[in-house]
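About this split. The held-out portion is used to measure sequence recovery: a designer receives only the structure tokens and must propose an amino acid at every position. Recovery is the fraction of positions where the proposal matches the reference. Here is one held-out target exactly as it appears in the evaluation file.
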């Protein structure tokens, strides 16, 4: 009975890794596929060295996302990715833009919560590098 519960927990952790990283892998791939557009967006936000910021963004979203799905260095990468989600300063905006950014801010906060839990639980048994 205990073995079945452990196996179910490991399957749920695997599902959580996949579901939590879906957004990152998709958006990372889109940024890579349209690198010039990603650089242009970074420049529009006044990011210094927009090409570098675009490359770092792709690495964080796509490559770190895939690594977490596969269960590679899950704990440290979950912490690293969780710290990169601060954004959408809705309190500086007005109207519909404020509301949209508020939703994205709290969505990011929820993702950070999931990443923190993943950092605590680890990747589970179904990982290339279980802890």
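Reference sequence for scoring:
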């Amino acid at each position: 009975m205990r073995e079945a519960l452990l196996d179910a927990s490991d399957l749920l952790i695997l599902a959580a890794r996949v579901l939590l990283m879906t957004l990152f892998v998709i958006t990372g791939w889109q940024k890579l596929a349209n690198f010039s557009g990603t650089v242009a967006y970074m420049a529009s936000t006044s990011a210094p060295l927009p090409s570098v910021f675009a490359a770092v963004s792709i690495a964080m979203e796509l490559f770190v996302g895939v690594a977490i799905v596969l269960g590679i260095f899950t704990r440290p990468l979950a912490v690293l990715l969780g710290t990169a989600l601060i954004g959408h300063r809705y309190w500086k905006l007005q109207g519909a833009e404020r509301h949209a950014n508020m939703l994205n801010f709290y969505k990011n906060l929820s993702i950070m919560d999931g990443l923190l839990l993943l950092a605590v639980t680890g990747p589970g048994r179904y990982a290339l590098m279980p802890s």
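Annotator remark: The CA atoms of residues 78 and 115 lie 5 Å apart.
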